[in-house]
Amino acid sequence: MGSLFRGEEMCLSQLFLQSTSAYDCISELGELGLVEFRDLNPSVNAFQRKFVNEIKRCEEMERILVYLMREIKRADIALPEGEVNPVAPLPKHVMDIMEQLQRLELELSEVTRNKEKLQKNLLELTEYTHMLHITRNFVQRNVERESVRPQYEEFPFLEKDVRMDYSSMQRLGAKLGFISGLIQRAKIEAFERMLWRVCKGYTILSYAEIDECLQDPYTGEPTRSVVFLISYWGDLIGQKVKKICDCYHCHLYPYPNSNEERADVVEGLRTRIQDLHTVLHRTEDYLRQVLNKASESVFTWGIQVKKMKAIYHILNLCSFDVTNKCLIAEVWCPVNDLPALRRALEEGSRKSGATVPSFVNRIPSTDTPPTLIRTNKFTSGFQNIVDAYGVGSYREVNPAPYTIITFPFLFAVMFGDLGHGLIMALFALWMVIYENDRKLKKSRDEIWNTFFEGRYIILMMGIFSVYTGFIYNDCFSKSLNLFGSGWSVKAMFDQGQWITSTVHSNSFLTLDPNVTGVFNGPYPLGIDPIWNLASNRLTFLNSYKMKMSVIVGVIHMSFGVVLGVFNHLHFRRKYNLYLVFLPELLFLLCLFGYLVFMIIYKWLAFTPPDSRHAPSILIHFINMFLMQGDSGEPLYPGQTGLQVFLVLVAVLSVPVLLLGKPLYLYWLHKGRNRMGMYRGYERVRRSSEEEISLMRSHDLEEGNSLDSHSSSDGQSEEFDFADVFLHQAIHTIEYCLGCISNTASYLRLWALSLAHAQLSEVLWAMVMRVGLRVDTRVGVLFLVPVFGLFAVLTVFILLVMEGLSAFLHALRLHWVEFQNKFYSGTGTKFSPFAFSLLHSSFENDGLL
Fold first, then answer.
1. What is the pTM of this model?
2. Residues 366/375, Cβ–Cβ less than 8 Å
3. At what angle do helices 455-472 and 418-433 cross, to 10 degrees?
4. Are residue 210 and residue 298 in the same domain, yes or no?
5. CB-based contact 89:304 (threshold 8 Å)
């Protein structure tokens, strides 16, 4: 079987790398992604390994690259488009890259620091200018009497004339002072209350909001500020005011004593602001030039540093020989890739100019290899569904190729609607057509990435839903009359069964298939559209879909049991064919396979005129377990005897499944001591030992109990019969009870299909039919918003919510009902050392 049907054969190999060519050889292996390295220094601390200094140097370069990338993004400079994949730099070129990065970082940090200082100075000058313009009339403005009443009690002369400037108040000996500055708008109310409470009213606060937003030089966010002017009396009050201003992080600026001084300050500020704008503009131009220069190489450097760091991590996993001239590495490698591995080592040795080539040596191992299953962009999504349950054990059957068909089919059985399936298929087809679009592939939206990664799964689910929509004859809860109905209403009038008065006096009428010409034969494909008008439509569809679910479920489970044969044959456990597979298959088919037989037989044996007299399958199936004769008419001749025989076979298969394997293994273990006289016994013993050893390493059944310990001096092997019997008993109970519960679990196919159809019908009746009932000219305009609402509800409820529900139920049917028949999923995934896997980590590290 191919790699998709079963994991590839793996081998453990040793790489002997010369010290001078080890770096280049590892680089070649990283480009190809062939091998998975094992850690040969598990007891050595990460900070005590040989190449820890080189890794620290790479981390320092990564830090600089992250800083450069952050500044480039802040400047909104686009990176070069296209796929860039440079090779890892040679060790002798690392210092050149390090020097360039450090020079860029130093230059960029100095320019950025100067720019921040200039912006801070510009902000202070701008704030000072706003403060001078706004506070020009604060002292001369009338103060509201309510706000200064306490001041009047202490200084009654202020009540007569509060339009005095600072020099006039000094002549009166009042020691009046001013503090001016800016505060954030959100803090002004608390600031005003604090001044009133602390200063006992011996202050006058005047403030006004600045019209324009000032930009914070550190965060770059616009902020709203308020200019305030505080008049106070006495040095003690002034000290308190300054402390309050510090607590609220106010920006304080000196207040001019006279109008002449104010004019001089304003003129000086205007000149300085113009100069700062000029210098700041030139600084920004120079900063952008530095960032443009860095953007040309930063992405390439990022990939090179990532690769170099990965190489040194791998080198730390290797061990050194006693002469420190050779590195030894152990790798898991697919057997088919061994020639490519040798060529990569030869290429690395050639590039480094080593005189002694590196080579690979395959070594035997008893460790369980990792599982490698090669996939492409189509099969990777279905393989991820299987791996989400558990990575397959080494060389066991892979369910993914069968899941490609069964998963979308079971989804479509629950989601069967022609219209909804067509919308889903078109959406997935659009993603498939534009799958190479960089914007779609590099999106940061996790929900979109989930849809995009599963685009082929969605496409298959949509196509299968279109097929089952044809079978159900359901399109947005409406039937399509493509081939003409098999039922004729006209025949009821022609035969005289109905008259006009009968039609007018009855809301519901029954079509009798016994009347000649009423039933002209089955509909060519799917459900007859006349059932969409029938009052018993739901009863008919329930019976049809419930029986269909049982048939699909039994076939699906039987296929899973049959797939276990390939595992038994591959791992050379042929006794499992007779002691495990055969009892399991007989138990399943004799009970539930017989139920499927009765369903199909009843469909074929009874025509529509005879359907009224058809016996109940449920009653026959219950009587089969009770060993009772059928109370009514039998379904076919000899039914009772066949049912008794099938029940006996199913019952007898349980003790075979329970005791067969433990007793056989016990006989296989004890028989070696009693049958040594036969000549061919040694050959049988060797094959049995290999079989038991292989079972211990790769047994697919959970809880394998064969603990055999063989040694070179011929020590006896240990066998725990109780342990083997216990695990086989658990497996038997799980399987027998699981056959019943799993068959019932497949009824979710019927339940979700019914729920989807009824929800679609309700949506049509409650929304779309409202717009169609308006038959005036206004109804055409009214139909537009109604159709928009119908489309939105269809997408979000029937496509997204119902689609997700059907997806999860199909997932459960595969994980629990199908895969547990043959798939253990207890292996480890093959994780090769590949540079292509590093690109996914750039975004997390800030390099993208």
1. 0.80
2. no
3. 160
4. no
5. yes
